Structure formats: structure tokens, C-alpha cells
Amino acid sequence: MELADVPRHRPLAFDKMESLIKEMQDPETGVPVRSQKLFLTVIPSAFMGYDLVEWLMERFNLDETSNGECQVVGASQGPWSRRRNPVDSSYNEKPRLPQVLIFEAINLANQLCQYGYFFPVNDLKNLVLKDDSSLYRFQSPYYWPWQPSRVSGSSSNAPTLGPDNVEYAIYLVKRTLRNKQRHGLEEYEQEALANLKKNLSAKWDFITMQAEEQVRLAKERKKGDKIVSDSQERAYWRVARPPPGVSSGLEPCPVPVRSRPHKPKKRTIHQLTREIEYLKTSLDRTRVKTSIALDALVAYAETFAPYDPWLTPPQPSNPWVSDDTLFWQINSPLVEIPSEKRVQRWALSIEELISDPTGLQEFTSFLRKEYSHENIRFWLAVMDLRRSSTKQIPKKLEEIYEEFLKPGAPCEINIDGATAERVAEGLRSGSRYALDHAADHVYGLLLKKDCYPRFIRSDHFQRLLTEGKNVHQKKAKFFNFGGQVRKKPGSTSGTSGTAAGTGAGLARRRGSDRSLSGSAHELAVCAVQPPRPPDPPAHSHSQSNLTDIPFRDPLEDDTADVLPWESSSREGAYGGRRRQDSAADSGSSSSDVSGAVCERTRRLPQQSTLDGGLRGAPPPLRRLSAVEPRHLAPLASPPHSPRPPRPAPRPLPPVHPHPTPTISVSSAPDDESADSPPGTCSPEEPRSIAQSDEPSSVFASADATPTDSARAPPPLHEGCSSLVEIGNEMIASEEHPSAVASVVLGGPSIESCEDSTTSRAISDSKESDRTKSSEDETSSVRKPITQEASAIDVVMEQNPVEGAAEPMRAVAPLAVCEDTAVEEEPPSRASDRTASSPSDIVKRDSKPDLGERKLRNDICPWEDENSCESDAPFVKTYATLGYL
Amino acid sequence: MAADTAVSASPEETLESLLREVEALKQKLEEERQKLNDVSLSSIAEKLEPITFPNLKLRRVLKGHQAKVLCSDWCPDKRHIVSSSQDGKVIIWDAFNATKESTISMPSTWVMACAYAPSGTLIAAGGLDNKVTVFPIGGDEEPGVRKRTVATHTSYISACLFPNTDRQLLTGSGDGTCALWDVESGQLLQSFQGHAADVMCLDLAPSEMGDTFASGSCDRSALVWDMRTGQPVQAFDTHLSDVNGVKYHPSGDSILTGCDDSVCRLFDLRADREVARYGKDSILFGVNSVEWSVSGRLVFAGYSDYTAGAWDAVRAARLCVLCGHEHRVARLQRSPDGTALATASWDATIRIWA
């Protein structure tokens, strides 16, 4: 049996086509059918192509209401793009007639023609509908496809797609019995006839008899009818048995046969019971309202629109369009520096984070630094387990047990009793899903609710965001243009020299964090900042920092703790570290690596984006805060750092194991004016770094504390956080700097260092006055600055906590004030110096910074705005999706 | 329970009472679902701005198959495609360069399913041979050398995929079942029985956990399965004909089905009901395959009328018709990063739109 002969289910499309054809043939409302005169001959029962197209368009225009914007895309413009006269006029009458309608009408007409519902009168070779005056004729329903077979020879009554061979044989024999000229067989038909004669020899008598009979009957018909029925029959076979090499619309797929028994199979009791059980459980299912489901759908679409290449053109370009694979390089599964957009996506949900290999890696390394990565590792191990080959299951199960579950295991995870019981049960069963429950527990309670939010709020994450800012340019540099692209950022920095420098400094800070932790090469690169005004003291500090580097990690570790506040401080640590790094960078200029230059230029662009980066990242967080108060604080704080209590870090004596003060101060200025310290590395530098580490942790506390303060932060932190928050609010509301200053004052008081407070207050007031005057211009600039300042302040505060000399603090605040003041206004510099006589370093740094800062001002304002705008939708989505 | 009563009562009676119970429960279920049907999609859509649809254009044409292309699958590397065709050939393409990388001959014609493994180093294919064969690719030798038969069904293979791992294979078959296999040993890990007719399509939930998958069948229903228990979790049966394509929304909260009745339907898993329909009168032919854009805002459907259509999922309006194929569009799939759409057609070509 041929494929076409197999009884099968008739697709719904045939019902639809048939009803449509019936509508077309309606004498009143259908397609006008009449005898057409062609030269001297009359062609009965025919219609013209454009009439049909017209009719179809009318027919479907009715329900084309919602479809105005639909477009047609094709390899080449089809016939629908140029309609002939008769239709053109109507087209003009309906000016909004969408292109798609014309296309659709022609496409549909072509389909109907392919299936043989009508056929071209003069040209059976090509079964296509032309949108012109060519003539077509409807097929008789008898010859429609998918009819029950009509010949006694066929075995089944089910509808078949095509006719069977007996019918075909009769038809061919009939043609041989008639006028050779008009009914002669084509070559392929003769072949087919020969084959059929061989295969159906048993039935051949019957076939010839039938054929003779039909020919005899046909002779009795009127001529007009005869022409029509002959053409119909011929068209039918043209469709059902197309000439070789011509594809047919009726060509069936061998499967599914889909011929369904008329009665559904009798179901067994077992099946029914199962169905009932299923239905009962379905009844108990909790459902959400449709509105909620639809809102979620809409929210998801809005959230992810930026990541949908069809809605938001990808940056730098869609490889398929531009033939440039840079987009893929930037977004390859594992990259050193993920693009900002990609990092932002991680903030949408933990699923987004974990499904991205780079995200997973960053998350894991973040948790590793927190010493809490056993959870993610356990979860990954279980995920791996359930997807493992059957053979490996017992072994992997055992390994997981040994590493994570056994009492006293090296990475024992913390699960409750009930889960533990189920784990034990699962272990006994040895199934690949044995540990799913525990994994769900770890994922849902620990990773999702605890680790993930912390990661998103962490400085690590912020740094990633900032680093990702200029990935495109960087990549472009590396892959395409080499020096040229590099120049771009550089030139901007050059023209607005210091501005770029400062921005770069900040960016570098973030980058440097990584460099410190990881690659020495990077560090060196950073260090090789282009020449800045030499700053001897800074060097020395930075050098000392370098020596101290080993200390940093222990510090972090200490901070890393489960306690909420501690965690917050931990987050801060990154910031602190960054600071150090920057300091280190400035200090260690000795190594003049060409790469360093590259690095620097690369980062320069960042500077401008820095503000945006900081702020951009936070928005999602802020949004979060709206949802969850807890999140609020951290988010807000990074962008506009409040100036909370600033203990004096600087004054810290070198004796202190982590002599933060001087270093931190110096580093801070560095960051802003990265350029200031040229590459000279003084021996002190290493030490300063270590110090900065400490402050960093403090800084972290400032950022993070607010979040965690809700839980149970130690009083000191709480004070800080509250201050910070206040500061944030003020800044955010564009309040006067003086107000901020007052807030700052409050901070020290909490710490009970009056001396520092007073001095600081003075400096603050000065600063505020100055800033006032230039506030408008600098306001945008100020935010980042203040932020940094605040960070510094926080750092300072912590120092005392860690045992730094309290008296030093008094000095420190001054220094901080200076920095901020300097940043905001050059003139303030002098005053600052006087105020902060103790901190020589600060002065020096600030001096160079002044110029830079000014420059930066130029850039910053737009950047801020831009970043804010771009981030806004992102934030929104996050709120809706992640936490609803 | 019902099973216990079945033993005591006469079989006929039990069967009938059970059938009645099924009907009653179904009705109740429908009522429950309707209770929460508070808004229609159109009311939500009114608040939304229509999106500006990108100018999708034909970017590549992959020519090389000698017969109908029945299935295709993107490689996770975003530029390779594996496709299978009626003449029993499986071709691995570098779609970006529009070149063939290798050709594998299968033992039977009508290779209706093919899939890339997540690692990109294995492909699976099967069809009328009732088997799925896994081929390692990327090595030096011919891909056919180290092939391995992993899955065996009692009828043709209509769909297969690797569920987030190279080590397992999920198949759907004309015998009405789906099955999960261990690739290494060819062992059946789980069988999924519940469809009353040929399974036509499969899709895996996008979640990392990958606990569920959806299947569409000629019994006019789409089922959502729990991979671990082998039981159907949810069923959606508002289709008028075969379900030819099914696809999870990228959020994993709903599934989209493409039906032979030429309508695509959106079923929300949490609302447990159909929430949207994408279809119109002028489309007469069945949907063979469906796809989402990354954001879930766009729906793509490949039709038997030689075209593919793009729909605004929220406004349920058709945005675009992609034409150019000269035969039915059997399969359409977005590239993993959403930058391109591949359509495989019975006209023996695969076209890439972006």
C-alpha cells in the first residue's frame, strides 16, 4: 500500500478549506463565476484570479481588526506587492488595507489550488494562483481531497488522502480510449499505466470495463459539461498523481496515521481509577486568578524585554545581522568580565544567576569568600547527581554523603532534622533523586533567601556591574581595533583629563579589587597609571600596603560570618579592598607595562560610568527595598553615600597591625583622582593596602548595615546605619550639604569622640558653605564624591572599633572633610589643608584631585542621568518578579 | 478506594460508575477553573503599548537536504544546527556560515526527531526506526562510528531532547508514551504513560531543576509531567485537534501549544487554565511548531501553509508573517540566545531569520 492509501485522520484544515470553498461558490456572495470568452472560444464556469483574491480579502478583512501592524517578511517580494489594476482601485479605496491581507489572500488561494479545490483552466503544469485575469475553475466536490474512497476495490471506508491505484488505472485507461490528440498520456502517465497493469493484473478486466463504461457515459453529456468534467478530472489527477519532481500539497507524512477508532478504546478500570485520582488531586490544586497569571506574563515580558534581541537590539550587534560575532564573544558562557547587562540580569532572580555559568561562578566564588559555599556546592552536586548516568549514582551519592552530609564532614551542610531524616531515607534508597529534598531545602531556604540577596547587595556584585560597563569597548579593543578604540576613552580622559582620571580611578578601584585577589599582572597594570603629580607620601603608604596584603584575607574571613551585621560588613569589605587597590595602583607605578596603559584606558570610560554604575546597580536593590525594607538601605547607600560618622583613619599609627587611617585616606583621594599618585611605589604602600582592607570591611558595614540593622546589628553599626540612611535621604532629596554635615556630626558623637566631632563639624560647615555656592553645578558630581567620602568615614569608624587609637579619630574626620571639600570645590583645598594638618597625605592627594574632579564633573552629570534612566525599568521588573 | 470496590462489584458496573465519576469530576474541575477566571487577556493588553516589531529578515538559507526537513535543533553554542530529514540524513550545520559540517546517514527514512546535547558534543536522532541513536560529534572520526542506540519504542519517535544533561534522553513516541533513558546504558529510567494517542512533541521546563516537562499528543491534550514520579501533573484538553508543538514560557509558568486546528494556545500552569489563544479565521492550516522569544512577549508559530507567524503574546495580535518557504514549516526554533529563528521546512531548506 502506498502512503497515501493508508486511512488516516483528516486534518481540520480540510474542513476549513471545504467550508471556505463552499462560501466561494455561493451564487450570491461568492466569487463571480461565468463563461469567459477567450478569443473566439468560450470557457465555461470559470473565474478570474483577481476576483478570487479580492473575494478572499473581503472575506478576511472583516476579522482583521486588530492586525494593523502586521507585516510580511519574505525572501523576495511576492506578487502581493504589486497588484494589477482592478484590485489597485479597490486598494486605494481602502488605504489601510494591510499588506498582509493581500499576501494572505494569495497565499491561501495558492494553498487551495495546490490541494485541488480549484485549478487553472489553461495551465495544469503550475498549480498557482495568479493575481490577474487568468482563468480558474472550481473542482467538483467529488474530486476534493480526503474523501472516503469511492471504488469498490478499496478496502476501507475511512477517508484517504488520495485516491487508490484502481481509480488511477481506470482514469488512465479511459484516456487511452479517447482522442489521442486531446487526451494522450504524458510520458510519466504512460509509465504509470504500464506499472499499474503489472501490479493490478488481477483486476485489469474490471478496470477496463469500468473505463469503457465511463467513456460511454461521458459521450452522452453536453459539450460544455464535458469540457468542465474532463478538466476537473484531469486536474484532480494532476494533484493526486503529480508529475515527477513536482511537490504535492497532498504528500502525506507516514505518521501519525491518526486514524482514530470511531469508539474510544475501552479503558480499563485501572486507567479510570488513575484518572479519577488525578482529577481529584487536580481539584485540590491551588490556583491563582487569571489576572495574576496574566500580570505575571506581562511583567515577565517587560522585565526581559531588554534581554530579548528581537525587542531590544543587542549590543554591539546581532551576529546574524552584522556578521560580527563580538556579541557572542562577550556573552560566551564563561567570560572573565561579564557585561553589565548580563550582571544586571543576575539580579532578576536566582534562576537567572545560576543558569548563567559565569553567574554561577561568581556566585560561588563570592560564597567561597564568605566561607558559606558549601550550600551551593552541595546543591550543584545534587543537581549533578540526578543527571548522572545510572552507573555513577552510588558512587556520587557516596561522595556527596562523605563531603556534605556525614556528621563532621568537611563541608557539612546545615539541614534540619526532618530533612536529615529524608536524606537518610534517600540514601538508603540509592535513587538519583535521593537528595532532592535536601537540595530543595538548601536552595529554597539558604541560597535563595539568604545567599542570593546578599550576593546581589554585595560590593562584589557592584564591582561586577561596574566592570561590565565597558566590556563592549574593551572587547572591541581586543578583538577589532586594538589601539584605536582604546584611544576613544583615553581621548575623553585626556581632554577632560582629570575627570576621566577620577572616574577611571573609581572604576579601577573596583577592578583592582579583583586584581588584588587574583592576578598580579592586573595589579601591576593598575599601578601603572599614567603620570600624575607625584605624591611621595602616598607611595610610601601604598607600598606598605603591599607588604600587608596577606593580611587582607584573614580580615575578610573574620568578617565573613553568618550574623547579619557581620555579613553586611563583609560586603563592605569589597569596597574597602577596592580602595586599597586603587591606592596600590597609584603607588605601584614602577612597573611600566604597556598592558597597564591599555588597562587604564579601558577603565577610563568606566570612570564616567562609575557613578552610573554604582547607582545603576543599586536601583534594583532600591526597588527591592520597597518590597522588603531590609534591602532598601544597602541599595540606596552605595550611590549616595551618606557621610556618617567618620572616625579618623589617617592618624592611625603605623604600629597598628592594620594601619588603616593614612592609607584609606590616601586611597580615597586616589580613587577619585586616580591619576594623582604616579607610579612610584614607596615601601609603605603594601601596608597601606592592608589597612585599607580593614577600612573596607568597615565600609561594607556602612553599606550593608542598614539592611541588616533591622535584624540585630551591634549598636555601633546600627548607629552608623541609621546615620547612613539619614544621610542618604538627605542627599537623595538634594538637601543642603550642611544638613549632611550635621548628620555626620551625629555620627561621631555616637562613638563618643567629641574632639573629632567638633573639628569635623567645623570642616563640614566650611565645606557646606562652599558647596552651596557651587552646588548646582556640582550636585551631580557630588553624589559620587560624597559616597566615597562616606565610605571613608565609615571605614574610619570601624578602625576605632578594631582598636585603633581613638584620639586619632579627631584628626581623621578632618581629613575626610578635606577630601570631600576638595572634591567639591577647589578653593576649599586650602582650608582643608589647614584643617587637616595632620594628614599630609590627604592634602597631597586632594590637590591633584581638584583638577581631575572638576573635569569629571563635566562628564558625570549626564552619566548619572543616563544610568538612572536605563536602570529604571530594570529595577521595576526586579521588584515585581523577584519578590512578589 | 476505587480499586477496592472494583474487585467486589461487577466489572461492567464499576466501569460505568467510574466513567460517571470521571465525568463529574471533570465538570467540577472546569467549574473550579472558571471561578478564578476574572479577567480576559484583552483587558490586560489594552493597557499595554504595542511593541515595535523588529524587522526580522531572512539571513541564511541552509540548503543541502535532499528531502523534507522534519526536525532541527540549535546547538548551545548558538551557531550550529542539527537537522534531520525524510531521506534519512542528519546534517550538522554551521548555520552562521551556512555550511554543512557533517552528514550522518540513518538506517531509516523519516527521521522525525533530532536534538543537540547541552555539551554540544552529542546529537540524538530517531524516527520511523522506532529508536533514538546518539552520535558523538566533534571528534576526528566519522560521527557514525561510535553511535549508540539509547531509546527504543514500539512506534516511531516523534521527539527527543536531552534534559539539561548529556547523560539522559527524553523521548516521545507514536506509541503514546514518553520515556526517560540513561544514555550510557540505554536503560529506561522512567516511562510516562497517560496519553491516549501518539505523542507529537516535548518540551522541558526551563528551570534549572528541570523537574517537569510537557508533551503534546494526538489525543488533543497537552500534559505536564513530573519527571521523577512519571505521573502527569496537569492536563490541558481544550484543543480541537492534534497538539503538534508545545513550548514552555521562559518563566516556566505557562506552556504554549500549537495545534493542528491552526490555533496556538497559552495555558497558565498556576491558573491551571487556558489564558490566551493565538489564531484567526484566515489561518486554515495547522500549527506544526511553536516558539517564544526570550522575553516571552513574542510567540512564533510555524504553519502548514508554508509560512511562519509572529504574535504579540500579550495582545494576541499577529505581528508578522514570515514567508519564503515553499512547503510546510515543520519546525521552528529560536537560537539559545534569542538572536535568530530557524525554520525547517518540507521544502528541504532551513532558513534563519534575524
Automatic annotation (TrEMBL), chain A:
* A single GO cellular-component term on record: plasma membrane
Keywords, A to Z, come to: Signal transduction inhibitor
Q: Which PANTHER family match?
A: LP21163P (PTHR45746), REGULATOR OF G-PROTEIN SIGNALING 7 (PTHR45746:SF5)
What is this protein called in UniProt?
Answer: Regulator of G-protein signaling 7
Under the heading InterPro entries, the entry gives: DEP_dom, G-protein_gamma-like_dom, GGL_sf, RGS, RGS6/7/9/11, RGS6/7/9/11_DHEX_sf, RGS_DHEX, RGS_sf
Cite the SMART domains for this sequence. DEP (SM00049), G_gamma (SM01224), GGL (SM00224), RGS (SM00315)
Q: Where is the composition biased (Basic and acidic residues)?
A: 763-775, 841-854
Q: Does the keyword Nucleus apply?
A: no
Annotated transmembrane regions: none
**Domain RGS: start-end pairs:** 349-465
Gene source species: Bombyx mori (Silk moth)
Please list the residue ranges that the record marks as compositionally biased, kind Pro residues: 636-660
Residues covered by region (Disordered): 482-514, 527-720, 749-854
Q: Which CDD domains match?
A: DEP_RGS7-like, GGL
Molecular function as annotated in GO: GTPase activator activity
Isomerase listed as a keyword? no
Biased-composition ranges, Polar residues, are 689-708
Q: Which Pfam families match?
A: G-gamma (PF00631), RGS (PF00615), RGS_DHEX (PF18148)
Q: Which GO terms describe its biological process?
A: G protein-coupled receptor signaling pathway; intracellular signal transduction; negative regulation of signal transduction; regulation of G protein-coupled receptor signaling pathway
From TrEMBL, chain B:
What this protein is called in its record is Uncharacterized protein
Q: Which organism is it from?
A: Bombyx mori (Silk moth)
Alphabetical list of InterPro entries matching this protein: G-protein_beta_1-5 (IPR016346), WD40/YVTN_repeat-like_dom_sf (IPR015943), WD40_G-protein_beta-like (IPR001632), WD40_PAC1 (IPR020472), WD40_repeat_CS (IPR019775), WD40_repeat_dom_sf (IPR036322), WD40_rpt (IPR001680)
Q: Which domain of life is it from?
A: Eukaryota
> Which Pfam families does the entry link to?
WD40_Gbeta (PF25391)
Gene3D superfamilies recorded: YVTN repeat-like/Quinoprotein amine dehydrogenase
| The keyword Coiled coil is assigned to this record | yes
Give the source lineage, highest ranks first. Eukaryota, Metazoa, Ecdysozoa, Arthropoda, Hexapoda
Which key words are in the record? Answer: Coiled coil, Repeat, Transducer, WD repeat
Query: In residue terms, where are the WD repeats?
Result: 62-103, 150-191, 192-235, 236-277, 322-354
Family indicated by similarity: Belongs to the WD repeat G protein beta family.
Q: Name the SUPFAM superfamilies for this protein.
A: WD40 repeat-like
- Write out the coiled-coil annotation as residue ranges: 12-42
Q: What GO biological process terms does the UniProt entry carry, in alphabetical order?
A: signal transduction
